[in-house]
Design a protein that fits this description.
Blueprint: E1 5-7, H1 10-21, E2 24-28, H2 37-49, E3 54-59, H3 71-85, H4 93-100, E4 107-111, H5 123-128, H6 137-142, E5 148-158, E6 161-165, H7 173-182, E7 189-194, E8 206-207, E9 214-216, H8 235-245, E10 253-255, H9 260-274, H10 276-285, H11 291-296, E11 307-313, H12 315-322, H13 334-341, H14 353-359, H15 369-377, E12 386-388, E13 391-393, E14 399-401, H16 407-417, E15 428-433, H17 437-445, H18 448-452, E16 454-456, H19 459-462, H20 470-476, E17 480-485, E18 488-490, E19 495-496, H21 512-521, E20 526-530, E21 534-535, E22 542-543, E23 545-546, E24 561-564, E25 567-570, H22 576-585, H23 592-601, H24 620-632, H25 647-662, H26 666-677, H27 684-692, H28 701-714
Parallel strand pairs: 1-9, 2-3, 2-5, 3-4, 5-7, 7-9, 10-11, 10-17, 11-15, 15-16, 17-20, 18-23, 20-24
Antiparallel strand pairs: 5-6, 6-8, 12-13, 13-14, 18-19, 21-22, 24-25
Helix pairs in contact: 1-2, 8-9, 9-10, 9-12, 13-20, 25-28, 26-28
């Protein structure tokens, strides 16, 4: 057993890490939430202060609180940020320095996934970015000479026994250590930092204390967890979610990411479950379900429920679990999982199930020690069962013959098993979690089967089928629907998700390629890429479906399903001509003629092709009119899962967004100037909003002008 050294001071831990690094720290830290910010900041400050030290951080998604870009944004954001994140939340010092251009040359930050759009114009971050599939990170870091790994750890004490968990991020850490060992590399110094507010997750995320070399437990490391503010969902995004939700089959598997489009899908799945009539009506108003939905999806409530297998576990899964949608459990026993998939048994065993299981080969002819352990592990026999000679003795004194070839012996086994519930089933597996404060509270409150049924595990397991249990994984992930978001798509089926055509990275590929490839590898899996058909408004509107683009994330030969607010395009196995037609059918009508002309010029559409009148109805106005009756019933609230903003802040957010849009061009600026000059006195409701911006009693000419601008925005 490896000795773990327990420390209680950040400074002492920093000294130990620096000594281990020998002046050249090559440090790996988890993606997102799992970074120990306080320790990393102290380590960064120590390296910056000592010219003999260098630091190379390998990580992803270094989260920072939003930074205001103007005085009005500062007045709006700062009170919200202090309330939402905590006034003392420690932003990552290296990430702040990288953002602000003050990072020393002795410090390098190599990330494989960036906070979306935050570093698009940061040359140094763009140069240091590493384009990696999530599943390749451990493999590639193993040869990079990592000598320190740091990670937040959750701890709980049960009956006086300490338990430790990698909690939010078992995604890469275990794989990295294993890869380094198999490559003959020295084991890195593994440092765990206990965070008392990090939700504890058991199962594969749980580790022994000797997994770590150093375990830091310092109250200075306690702070609010980084919580993502909940985003609004627009009417077109709700429409997209409705179309996407029709592709999900009851009893299937769900992978989904984060953002407004994912929230829209979750909302639609819950509407399908809770108010199926309204769900069907809304889809009918949009033109009805796509032909593909009848073949691979469904339209009824979820009787069997869904199993979640997603690299990211976020709020959406919480809402689906609460709503009775996320409830199908999978079991790490192929024979039992096969019996469940075929409907031979349910999760609770009935009279006659033993004979059915025996006939299906899921029960043995002879119960020996390994088989008894399996039966107990799966819940088929109670804890405390033991073999005594030629029979199994149960805790209640009953006996079951070990030799099960006779029907009378199986009848005895049936009496022991009938009414028992299968054990150790999982309704959700993920590689990392990140979400709202409400989501963290939900994770922390799970108990019983809800707690046991959640598993955080290695990304190498979640994001691919390879690794030795491919057959079981494929069975568990049956009818997999892998929903991901992209920025743009081409009419021939390629997706643009992570970067611009000049090479600048917006975010990163993460696991998107993995899930697209897995969907093709699974017999009944489908990859669903979601995007808004257009972006911007008025003269600034642009199509998100293009003829061609200088960068692709998913190549056209992996094309499968695309969904926009205007419908579903099934591209799998289709000719180029049929793909173009399918993508035109879900495009914004304002851009269809231009796309069709480009396709004709490239020979991908016949010269005589004409755009059907039905496709010309794909307009924002027609979509809004179709869903208006349902919106009036409250079915499409902009914040379907609640908001972190107050009503006054929501009013101000709309006003500030309008001000930003109006100030983008000269015509808008002149109109804004006129409105601001005519602002006049504030009404009672406006006074509250001005007070929130600290502009109720302006003291300078500049503040008085800001007050006029805010009033103009509120009155838009």
């Amino acid at each position: 057993m490896r000795h773990v050294e327990r420390l209680t001071a950040v400074a002492e831990t920093v000294a130990r890490i620096l000594a281990h690094g020998g002046g050249q720290l090559r440090l790996a830290a988890p993606l997102g939430l799992g970074k120990p910010n306080v320790l990393l900041n102290a380590l960064y400050e120590a390296v910056v202060a000592d010219a003999r030290q260098s630091l190379h951080v390998f990580t992803a998604l270094s989260l920072l609180r939003p930074k205001p870009g103007s005085e009005l944004e500062r007045r709006f954001l700062q009170p919200f940020v202090d309330r939402h994140f905590g006034a003392d939340y420690p932003d990552l010092a290296y990430a702040v320095a990288l953002r602000d251009g003050t990072l020393p040359e002795r410090v390098r930050i190599s990330e494989f996934y960036l906070q979306s759009g935050a570093l698009l114009r940061n040359d140094r971050a763009q140069r240091e970015y590493a384009s990696l599939n999530y599943t390749h990170v451990a493999r590639d870091l193993a040869v990079a000479g990592i000598n320190v790994v740091v990670q937040l750890v959750a701890r709980r004490v049960d009956g006086g026994r300490e338990r430790l968990s990698l909690a939010s991020n078992p995604d890469v850490t275990q794989d990295l250590i294993d890869e380094m060992a198999s490559a003959g590399k020295p084991r890195p110094l593994v440092v765990g930092v206990v965070h008392p507010r990090l939700p504890f997750v058991a199962n594969e995320a749980e580790v022994a204390a000797d997994f770590f070399d150093l375990l830091l437990d310092d109250p200075a490391c306690d702070h609010m967890l980084f919580a993502l503010p909940r985003e609004p969902v627009s009417l077109p995004e709700f429409a997209l979610g409705l179309h996407a939700s029709s592709l999900v089959r009851d009893g299937g598997t769900l992978q989904i990411g984060i953002g407004a489009l994912s929230d829209a899908v979750v909302h639609a799945l819950l509407l399908r479950q809770r108010n199926n009539e309204a769900w069907r009506g809304a889809l009918d108003a949009l033109g009805g379900t796509a032909p593909l939905a009848a073949a691979v999806g469904g339209s009824g409530p979820f009787v069997h429920g869904l199993y979640g297998a997603s690299e990211m576990v976020m709020d959406g899964f919480m809402h689906l679990a609460r709503g009775g949608v996320l409830k199908r459990r999978v079991f790490d026993d192929f024979a039992l999982e096969q019996a469940l998939a075929e409907g031979i048994i349910g999760e609770t065993l009935r009279t006659g199930d033993v004979e059915r299981l025996y006939a299906a080969g899921a029960l043995p002819s002879l119960i020996h020690l390994p088989e008894l352990a399996r039966l107990v592990r799966c819940g088929l026999l109670p804890e405390g069962s033991r073999i005594d000679g030629e029979q199994v003795l149960l805790p209640d004194g009953a006996a079951v013959p070990c030799d099960q070839r006779e029907m009378s012996a199986r009848a005895a086994l049936g009496r022991a098993m009938t009414g028992r519930r299968l054990r150790d089933g999982r309704y959700l597996r993920g590689a990392f979690f990140l979400g709202s404060a409400e989501f963290y509270r939900w994770l922390g409150s799970l108990d019983g089967e809800d707690f046991d049924g959640l598993s955080m595990t290695r990304v190498s397991d979640i994001n691919q089928l390879y690794g030795g249990r491919e057959t079981l994984d494929a069975l568990q992930r049956r009818d997999g629907r892998f929903f991901n978001t992209c920025m743009m798509a081409t009419a021939l089926g390629a997706a643009v998700s992570d970067a611009l055509e000049d090479g600048r990275v917006v975010s990163g590929v993460g696991g998107q390629y993995n899930f697209v490839a897995m969907a093709h590898a699974l017999r009944d899996g489908r990859s669903v890429l979601m995007l808004r058909a257009s972006r911007g408004s008025g003269a600034a509107a642009r199509s998100s479906i293009l003829w061609n683009y200088g960068h692709t994330t998913i190549p056209r030969h992996l094309r499968d399903v695309y969904v926009t607010e205007y419908g579903v395009a099934d591209l799998r196995g289709k000719s180029d001509e049929d793909c173009v037609k399918a993508m035109l059918a879900i495009s914004d009508a304002r851009f269809i003629d231009g796309l069709a002309a480009q396709a004709r010029a490239a020979g991908k559409l016949a010269p005589a092709f004409t755009v059907p009148d039905e496709w010309r109805r794909n307009t924002p106005e027609r979509l809004a009119a179709a869903l208006a009756p349902f919106a009036r019933r409250g079915l499409f609230d902009a914040f379907p899962f609640g908001t972190d903003f107050t009503p006054v802040e929501l009013q101000l957010a709309g006003a500030l967004r309008w001000l930003k849009q109006r100030s983008a061009g000269w015509g808008g600026r002149l109109d804004l100037l006129r409105r601001a000059l005519l602002a006049g006195a504030a009404g009672p409701a406006e006074t509250e909003a001005l007070a929130r911006m600290d502009l109720a009693a302006p003291r300078t000419a500049g503040q008085r002008w800001l007050r006029r601008l805010v009033l103009a925005g509120l009155r838009r």
